[in-house]
Amino acid sequence: MKGTDMNTTATPARYFALIPCAGNGSRAGTAGPKQYERVGGQPMVWHTLSAFAGVKRIARTLVVVAPGDGFFERNPTTSALVVPCGGSTRAGSVANGLRELRRAGAVDHDWVLVHDAARCLITPELVDRLIDACSGDEVGGLLAHPLADTLKIEEQGRVVGTIARGDKWQAQTPQMFRLGMLRQALEAAGDQVTDESSAIEAMGLKPKLVEAGGQNFKVTYPEDFVMAEAVLRGRAR
Ligand SMILES: Nc1ccn([C@@H]2O[C@H](COP(=O)(O)OP(=O)(O)OP(=O)(O)O)[C@@H](O)[C@H]2O)c(=O)n1
Ligand SMILES: C[C@](O)(CO)[C@H](O)COP(=O)(O)O
């Protein structure tokens, strides 16, 4: 499918945020899901949601949580739509969230910005940068950062090769695509793809890379909490 197929409708496209928040954070070593751990005095996902609440162009934010997750019932402080439709993989959670967005009134030519709950250092400025860079684009795109380290190939604990890094970028989120195109791409790609861009690439399309710096990292390992705290403390000064 070509991106232009999605542009032929009379109503202007709106922007929706979809936050996959249904993981359990096994690599983080926390007692519960890492997105609810406190960072900078608040549950991590609060920072994520308040960044999106600060973006005027976002019509609605939908948060995908795991079935049975009671966090938002116990802490009802967000205007986002929270739906317990999480899947067993991130891609499954995103696909289910897209279905819920349609139920909430989004249509195929609307843009969806998919963003990890665990990328809590996102800012309204970065979200706006992505929207500005991609809303005139046929395909869409993602925030990303050029790789700074040399990349090694490992076999049994030893280096067997080095990969040239000049054209390598670290994919971040949000990743922004038309709802209809993304739904089709994920359906075709299956639920093992690790980001939306991979599914779109598998359709032969080339998402746009939008430089976002290194602070928008995903809190994945225990030490990432310390770094996230430090960044938030620096911003509060
Ligand atoms: N079945 C899943 C798995 C992940 N996620 C969400 O996708 C984002 C990125 O995933 P990741 O960092 O891998 O989170 P977890 O799956 O929670 O972590 P881990 O892989 O260490 O278990 C997170 O916000 C997570 O909550 C989701 O919505 N549904
Ligand atoms: C979507 C993502 O954050 C882009 O870097 C990443 O692919 C998520 O991967 P994970 O396997 O869920 O950690």
UniProtKB/TrEMBL annotation:
GO terms for molecular function: 2-C-methyl-D-erythritol 4-phosphate cytidylyltransferase activity. Keywords: Isoprene biosynthesis, Nucleotidyltransferase, Transferase. The keyword Nucleotidyltransferase applies. Pathway: Isoprenoid biosynthesis; isopentenyl diphosphate biosynthesis via DXP pathway; isopentenyl diphosphate from 1-deoxy-D-xylulose 5-phosphate: step 2/6. It catalyses: 2-C-methyl-D-erythritol 4-phosphate + CTP + H(+) = 4-CDP-2-C-methyl-D-erythritol + diphosphate. Its EC number is 2.7.7.60. The record marks 27, 34 as: Transition state stabilizer. It is an enzyme of class 2 (transferase). Pfam families: IspD. The record marks 165, 218 as: Positions MEP for the nucleophilic attack. PANTHER family: 2-C-METHYL-D-ERYTHRITOL 4-PHOSPHATE CYTIDYLYLTRANSFERASE, CHLOROPLASTIC. Catalyzes the formation of 4-diphosphocytidyl-2-C-methyl-D-erythritol from CTP and 2-C-methyl-D-erythritol 4-phosphate (MEP). Belongs to the IspD/TarI cytidylyltransferase family. IspD subfamily. This is 2-C-methyl-D-erythritol 4-phosphate cytidylyltransferase. It comes from Ramlibacter pallidus.
